Amino acid sequence: MAEISRDEVAHLASLSRIALSEAELDELTPQLEQILEAVASVNEVATPDVPATSHPIPLTNVFRPDVVGETLSPDEALSDAPDRDGNSFRVPSILGA
Length: 97
Known about the structure:
Order of helices and strands: HHHEE
Strand order of the largest sheet: 1-2
Number of strands: 2
Helix content: 25-40%
Largest sheet: 2 strands, antiparallel
Shape: flat
Number of helices: 3
């Protein structure tokens, strides 16, 4: 059984910048344990005979030549920006720093 503690769930929430109440921590801890158990069950089925896949349908990338084309000047690129700092877009801080 995959075990995860309530403190570990609180730590993961903190790293994800998600504020969880005490009740939410109590509810999410067993749910996260179930998810970890489901993922662990895949390891039990995986065998060396089965090649790893990233996608069930074979895909082929279609490439075009990498040719330099017409580009915008910094002033053109930033002409509709609500705020700028020199030649850069200025955006609100999202990580609290």
